[in-house]
Amino acid sequence: MASDSHPRYRALVIAAICATTSVLVAAFLGARKRWHSGNSSRMNVNNSQQQQHQQEVDGSHDVPSSESSDDPAAGHEVEVFLSFRGTDIRKAFTDYLYHSLIDAGVRTFRDNEELRAGEEIGPELMKSIRQSKIGIPIFSADYASSEWCLMEVAEMVKSMKESKQLIMPLFLDVTPDEAQHQTGSYAKPFSQHEKRFGQEKVQAWRDALKEVVKLKGLELNKVANG
Question: Which reaction does it catalyse (predicted)?
Answer without folding.
Answer: NAD(+) + H2O = ADP-D-ribose + nicotinamide + H(+)
